[in-house]
Amino acid sequence: MKAQDIRKKYLEFFEKRGHAVIPRALLVPYNEATVLFTGSGMQPLIPYLLGEPHPKGVRLVDSQTCLRAQDIEEVGDNRHTTFFEMLGNWSLGDYFKEEQLPWFFEFLVDVVGLDPNKLYVTAFAGDSEFDLPKDEVSAALWQRMFADKSIDAQIAEIGSEEAGYKRGMKDGERIFYYDASKNWWAPEGKPSQMSIGQPGGPDSEVFYLFESVEHDPKWGEHCHPNCDCGRFMEIGNSVFMEYVRGENGFDKLPKQNVDFGGGLERIAAAKLDSPDVFKISVLWPIIEMLEKLSKKKYDEHTESMRVIADHLRGAMFLAVDGVRPSNKEQGYVMRRLVRRAILKAFDLGVEQNFVQEITPIIAELYRNDFPELLENEDEVVAVLVKEEKAFKQTIRKGYREFDKISEIANRRQGEDHNKFTGEDVFTLYDTYGFPVEITKELLEERLHVFGLSKNWQKQFETKMQEQRERSQTAAKGTFKGGLAGHNLIHKKYHTATHLMYQALRDVLGDHVVQHGSNITEERLRFDFSHPEKMTDEQKKQVEDIVNEQIAKDLQVSYKEYPTEEATGPLGALGQFGDRYGDVVKVYSMKDPNSPSDERPFSFEICGGPHVDHTLQLFEDGKKFKILKEESSSAGIRRIKAALV
């Protein structure tokens, strides 16, 4: 069974059980101030998990594409990828543990065909500090399900991950109780770390055992399901969101939600009984093409081929979702992905037409299930090829910069005379994209003239850590971003963004299409398609239009429409690359004194939040002002504006 089959069967399985299939959200979250990318399946559904009604109902299922920039440095082992798909199903106040756990077990064993003898599960051990009970319901459900497969599943009290390494596993144990550090999910971590008003709850994870993998004692004396040695791989997690943090502990939420996430790639690897996720059907064809192009074997060049396969796959989906390589935020991460892939291709001896050879393979793997890739394939390939050519030019510039730094090193005094420092190596790497390996090779060639300073590695790692922090998606922001965007100032800026979008189209033309936005408490940021710098007169026109519309006290309301009607005859604006289900929410901003048949000034597909009427933006005597207009990437401009 291929990964594509698992995805299809998963959606069908839950659709038959009353779930509405919803489309994936973009990899770039809409109006999220605290995260760069959609890093989990539940992230786009935060408003609905907090109580907002979903237009598709209370049972939902999807396969969400995700990207985690913090995993860039981890790619190269047998299971880490920056880009992955998260199979998800949700109950918004409908079913709970008694339905969720048996359904997932049935899907894994009876549909995918995994051997139940290789499945191990965990449950929440409780928290005495906050009087949170042990999840005995989940443990009992698992015990009964294993018994139905003639497996006597014993329950083990583990506690912490560290305790697991000391205790290990005993014969017959299959259900493991861990503490809140492992089996409690909340936006800010353990119960003691949660803020008032934050929701959370116990979770139950499923692990697959790869018997071919030997335990590596470097991780700990004994193996257990949460061991990092690779013998166990987590393939799914059911979160039972039933609590909210109060002033004096925890209260029950009015509605109990189920938030499930299962890694498609990992389930596919379990189906193959292979701990190497790169051998599954959505990655292995890329590896095979790399073997063909390089005339080298995967087993001998494993790390380079894994990096290429993962990074180009992620870069292609970023391009589909409107991201373009740049030196800022999402574009910066995309550029790192592409350039790391190209450098690894150099290691394999593949230097000519690399991107053009690999991208069609990736497109073929996904075109049937994600048609937006097929629709934008030519543009996506052109973006990546352009970046490849630019990077090769960068490499040539790097050689020239190396010579300049050599001259500086030659003039240094003391022990660093004729020495490259860690800062020098990092400057070549980060500013000019010059690989560390090439720097070291050049220094070895000129060893009689130059060398590396004694502390270069430590200096370089310090700079690298600073870079990682720039490119990472903050883990705490993964959930918090949705909450942080719902106070009044965020609503004001979100509303102003809608007004500015229409004003830009009025001033510059209908070619203006949104390519992303970001809202903080200090300002709004808006990316849009436009081929040239705006004039001062054009910026003033946009400001005047927005302020004029705010002064009319437009009424803000929304209505749900069939998607084809909203994007077709009604002409609702949307975001580049966005995908929608059968029904969308469209926000209107209209002068209450205008005729009923007059079109609203702003008519845009969006999920919220907004103010109720636009005069709220003028509170405290403030007006809308464009602070800066600049290039974001090729053909994309960026505006920063505020109420001042």
- What is the CATH architecture descriptor of the largest domain? 2-Layer Sandwich
Share of residues in helices: 25-40%
In angstroms, what is the radius of gyration?
27 Å
The CATH class of the largest domain is Alpha Beta
Give the number of helices: 20
The total domain count is: 3
Structure described in brief:
The strands form four sheets. Strands 1, 2, 3, 4, 5, 6, 7, 8, 9 and 10 form a ten-stranded mixed β-sheet that branches.
List the SSEs and their pairings.
Elements lengths: L2 H13 L4 E2 L24 H4 L9 E9 L15 E10 L4 H16 L6 E6 L11 H13 L5 E6 L1 H7 L5 E6 L1 H4 E2 L13 E11 L22 E15 L2 E15 H9 L11 H11 L7 H19 L8 H19 L6 H13 L4 H5 L1 H35 L7 E2 L1 H9 L5 H10 L5 E2 L3 H16 L5 H8 L3 H21 L5 E6 L4 E6 L6 H16 L3 E8 H5 L15 E8 L11 E4 L18 E10 L2 E8 L1
Parallel strand pairs: 1-2, 4-6, 5-6, 11-12
Antiparallel strand pairs: 2-3, 3-10, 4-8, 7-8, 8-9, 9-10, 13-14, 14-19, 15-16, 16-17, 18-19
Helix pairs in contact: 3-4, 8-9, 8-11, 9-10, 9-13, 10-13, 11-13, 14-16, 18-19
